[in-house]
Specification:
single chain, about 260 residues, Rossmann fold, about 25% strand
Length: about 260
């Protein structure tokens, strides 16, 4: 039982390390994630942002060489215990990837997929509509729900993937650079969507875009790499403070573009 949760935090990583074979990709990261807030993970390429993100829903289990050490609590549950079913964790902690990845199915079946495999007993069509509305996509697709999701634009596909994640009513959604493959207009639509749904879910977003982190997040965590290319956490706090008054000079140097 983890006694650190008083309702304010949904995730608590303590001393997390990730190895890919003999390579230490992530070193001694401790990070507490506030409930119903947007936390941005920023830092140079290769600093372990995506690796850390995948720790939160056991996606690193799918990489044969990956070994995750340390403790990660989801509410009061130790999620990297061998007794925990990672599939159940992933239904409560969803993920949206860098490149939109709709299934080669209809728009309707994409959103309904998670509901069906989780044994949803309500009206599927109502749940599909509700999820598409939350993802600000319903008006654009309501007359073509049986068309292939692959016919949608890139931005629409990404919002569909968010709708698919929202459909199973997760507590957390992890986003790995969800707008990096999109044009500026589609990017702003995704950012607006993120701000709207955070009243219902907690969001952790990996981004290389400092302006995006500053626009959408409540808290920011900055990671760097050491001389062995192992990622580590430098600083974590409220986004406004991180961007205007960072405590660590390395954070300031990164945010102001003096190194990347």
């Amino acid at each position: 039982m983890n006694d650190s949760f008083n309702g304010a935090y949904v995730l608590d990583a303590r001393g997390v390390q990730v190895r890919y074979g003999s390579f230490l990709a992530l070193k001694e990261v401790s990070l507490r994630v506030k409930r119903h807030k947007i936390t941005a993970l920023i830092g140079p390429s290769g600093c372990g942002k995506s690796t850390l993100l995948r720790c939160f829903n056991r996606m690193n289990d799918l990489i044969p060489s990956a070994v995750v050490e340390g403790d990660i609590y989801f509410n009061d549950q130790q999620i990297n215990s061998s007794t925990i079913d990672p599939t159940e964790i992933r239904s409560r902690i969803g993920m949206v990837f860098q490149k939109p990845n709709p299934f080669p199915k209809s728009i309707r079946d994409n959103v309904a997929f998670g509901l069906k495999i989780n044994g949803f007993t309500g009206r599927i069509d109502d749940a599909v509509e509700g999820s598409l509305r939350r993802a600000a996509l319903w008006e654009e697709v309501k007359d073509r729900l049986d068309k292939s999701a692959l016919e949608l634009s890139g931005g629409q596909q990404q919002r569909l993937c968010i709708a698919r994640a929202l459909a199973v009513e997760p507590e957390v959604i992890l986003m790995d650079e969800p707008a990096s493959a999109l044009d500026p207009i589609a990017t702003l639509a995704i950012e607006e969507l993120i701000r709207e749904v955070v009243s219902d879910v907690t969001i952790i977003i990996v981004t290389h875009n400092m302006q995006q982190a500053a626009r959408v997040s409540h808290e920011t965590a900055f990671l760097m790499v050491d001389d062995n290319r192992s990622g580590y956490l430098v600083e974590h706090g409220e986004t406004n403070r991180i961007f205007t008054d960072p405590k660590d000079e390395r954070t300031e140097a990164y945010i102001t573009g003096r190194f990347s």
